[in-house]
Write the structure tokens for this entry.
Amino acid sequence: MTVYESDLPGVGKKHEVELGDESRLVIVTHNTGKREVFRRESADSDSEKLFELDDKLARQVGTLLEGAYFQPVRSGDIQTLLGEDTLIEWVEVEEGSEVAGQTLGESDLRQVTGASVIAIERGDEVITSPGGDATVEAGDRLVVIGPREACRNFVDLVEGS
Amino acid sequence: MAGELLEFGYLFAVVAVTGAVALRLGLSVIPLYVVGGVVVGPHVAGRLDLPYVADGEVVALLAELGIVLLLFFLGLEFSLDRLRAARRNIGRAGVIDLAINLPLGIVIGLAFGWSLVEALLLGGIVYISSSAIVTKTLIDLGWIADPESEPILGTLVFEDLAIAVYLAVVTSLVLGGGGAGNGGVAAIGQSLAIAFGFLGLLLVAVQYGTGLFTRVLDIENQEAFVVRTLAVVIPISGAALALGVSEAVAAFFVGMGFSTSGHRERIERLLTPVRDVFAAVFFVWIGLGTDPMLLGAAAVPLVVAVVLTTPAKVLSGYLGGRVYDLSTHRSLRVGVGLVPRGEFSLVIAALAASGTTQVMREVIPAFAVGYVLVMSAFGTVLMQRSDLVERLVFRGGATESSA
């Protein structure tokens, strides 16, 4: 992502954010504190004003966008952070998932993703430290530990995306 | 005393009403304040035997404060660092703007048989765009988010610097007796030497006095903050004027000094209303001194100036936009965006009015008022309908190149 900053003498500052396609988000911050937000379709088109906010409201909205109040998580996943980069994550195994019906040894999840299954929740039952011969069934909830990246791979694989 | 207070009440009521009209119509307040001043002044309301606001010394003094504060704020926003950072683009676009529009105004003045100083005054009036009106229109139209706003605002910054130098020179020429044509080279030389001596000292003080400026304003209390700021700006400007040096330029330099003090934003927040009150009085005062009958004498120069300087400004702005590597479409908008003239043309008119010749005292101020009224409205309309301007210009260009 590239952000372009320029001075607007007598007005304030302008920041332009590339949105990935041709378009850019343009944020004009007035010296008075007012923010105006525009979207420019392409380099040659005129910016369309989306909305404006006063200073206080802009800060509140900015905090929301930053994720201070709510960090989006994939549905069904819960995670806990251990240290800088290690997560414990709960992953639902849905009907039709690649790993359903296989033993942990067969799906070889630890080798493939780098994250380990430390428990399987099945209804009220909890299988702790499951071995390679433990079978994963649809409807199970797997408790997984590993680096963030590994957990992400794990979730992708189990959810089949 | 009672009568004067009542007159002042009248003046501010006019400001409030014309301001409300401007807000309602989405126009800049500047031309409407001026028109309001003309209507309630001695030349219209006075002649109709209605209650009117006299063009007295007290109004003139408050208007003077308006000029000082306008230029002080210009200095606050002006930063040498900013100019240095974008020197190449701002410099080239600004020089093109200066090199086309100022000489054009001077030539128009000379063509009417005016003296060099008179022609120089006309040049300044038609050269300088209105920061207030242009910036407001940029925001209203949303151009502020598009690339054309950068060369437009950059050119305005360059004009600020140019007008500071210009006012320093021309004030000395007008007040130093050069305008009468019999002051002689020595007198002009002397007044210029005083001007540049004083302003040079002030500039040095401003450059090295940042610490002092910072300490003076290092205070929590808002009232003390506002009063201290005024207690620096007004005495220095007053001392300048007492020496025959431009009070406006002195205020500009003081503003520059405060801009690096770390208090800039607080000054802007707390003193903007103060500036706006006195600036409003200044615009009304300009109207008070304008005799609509004299507009007749200025009509021919006015029409000639509008017809010639509008395309010249569009052209210089267009070339400036090309310096910034903008497309022809956006460059044309830069040109159109610089057409509105306003407050600084009127500051120059106020300077001319203190001159010695009949052209300076009567014709140029009337000309400036007419010119600002036309160009502020016309410039804004051109910006709003820039699509039409574009079709007109580029269709003309296409037929030319095909012919």
User: Anything to note?
Assistant: Chain B has one domain: 2-402.
